[in-house]
Automatic annotation (TrEMBL):
The lineage of its organism: Bacteria, Bacillati, Actinomycetota, Actinomycetes, Propionibacteriales. Its main location: membrane. Gene3D superfamilies: MetI-like. The chain crosses the membrane at residues 42-63, 173-195, 207-226, 232-251, 286-306, 312-330, 342-362. This is Peptide/nickel transport system permease protein. The keyword Transmembrane applies. It is found in: Cell membrane; Membrane.
Length: 374
């Protein structure tokens, strides 16, 4: 009697979950935010533009063929230098002429007498990064010729060199002012949302009083009481402090709302049961959980601070000469007739617009990246 063998049933090992090998479940939060941020092409492009602006601010003396405070009476309100090609990049020589009708200087370019550009040539002495003494510049020309990439102002100073030098003040004062305001807003908002009760009431009434004051007149009043003979460094830090005194109130209210929701969560209750102090709960649990929102809000606040500094300096109560900022440079272009005759004096305004738009686009990208429902 023959028996038929039982059919063999092949079994395969259980398959792993779809996301077990992908690593998506083990990625830290900051990497997920970075992935979302990189998908926003406008934000990434804006970040690149800002990196270029800050690099230009750091390397301002190297990029500028002339010193930002060098005056030349023969180049008052001179137009940008004409670039030509004569066996290589060169500039056209220029001649100054007095217009007897308007009693203003006119400049005539003569490209028949060109002057070659010299890359990494020698010029005025400066300290690279504030440490390394050198006299090398990216582009120079032989004396007595002068290279004016963006023209000159009413005192014959290089607008390009002054714009690069002004970027150091205008771009850093925005970051520093927002850093101070963010620290105040995050601290006050967290304390108000965590302790509640009388502490919350007092802080919220103070914030309401602060936000009810008109911002620009308040800044003008605070800036106007500063001594006119202050040093450039001292005025820089005081203007930064003035700009940060009002900007933190809105962030404090937003953080208060988030902290109130966090304070009722289970991990905060567990921390209390474990004997954690209020300071430890605030700085180890509540503020880190709200950090993504704080970063996004702070980035959106930077352009407002830059515009505020530019406005104060433009009105003559912010940074004052001999300090150089984009607002100080724009104060030379207050009249319509000046802008019509010398439009290159508005180039710093274009830099302000570019920086503000880039910060806003980056802020939008960060806000979408930190959104847990994004």
């Amino acid at each position: 009697m023959t028996t038929t063998p039982a059919p063999v049933i092949e079994t395969s090992p259980p398959s792993a979950p779809a996301d077990a090998g992908s690593g998506a479940a083990t990625l830290p939060q900051w990497r997920l935010m970075a992935r979302r941020f990189r998908k926003n092409r406008l934000a990434v492009a804006s970040a690149i533009v800002l990196v270029v602006l800050y690099a230009c601010a750091i390397l301002a003396p190297f990029l500028s063929p002339n010193s930002y405070d060098q005056q030349d009476a023969d180049l008052k309100n001179a137009s940008p230098t004409s670039i030509t090609w004569s066996g290589g990049p060169a500039i056209c020589s220029r001649q100054q002429q007095l217009d007897t009708e308007t009693f203003s200087y006119k400049y005539r370019s003569d490209c028949g007498q060109s002057v070659p550009l010299r890359f990494f040539g020698e010029g005025y002495h400066y300290k690279l990064f504030g440490l390394i003494p050198t006299n090398r510049h990216l582009v120079t020309v032989d004396k007595p010729n002068t290279l004016l990439l963006w023209g000159a102002d009413s005192a014959g100073r290089d607008v390009f060199a002054r714009s690069m030098q002004g970027a150091r003040v205008s771009l850093t004062i925005g970051l520093l002012g927002v850093a101070v305001g963010t620290f105040l807003g995050a601290t006050v908002g967290t304390i108000s949302g965590y302790f509640r009760g009388a502490v919350d009431t007092v802080l919220q009434r103070f914030i309401e009083l602060l936000t009810s004051l008109p911002t620009l007149p308040l800044w003008l009043a605070l800036a106007a009481i500063l001594p006119q003979d202050m040093s450039v460094t001292g005025r820089y830090f005081l203007i930064t402090l003035i700009l940060s005194l009002v900007g933190w109130a809105g962030l404090a209210r937003q953080i208060r709302g988030k902290v109130m929701s966090y304070a009722a969560s289970d991990y905060v209750a567990a921390a209390r049961i474990a004997g954690s102090s209020s300071a430890r709960i605030v700085f180890r649990h509540l503020i880190p959980n709200a950090s993504s929102h704080i970063v996004a809000t702070a980035m959106l606040a930077v352009p407002a601070t830059i515009i505020s500094e530019t406005s104060l300096s433009f009105l003559g109560v912010g940074m004052l000469p001999p300090a150089v900022s984009w607002g100080v440079l724009l104060s030379d272009a207050q009249s319509v007739s000046t802008v019509q005759q010398y439009p290159w004096l508005l180039i710093p305004a274009a830099l302000v617009v570019i920086a503000v738009i880039c910060f806003q686009l980056i802020g939008d990208g960060l806000r979408d990246a930190v959104d847990p429902y994004g």
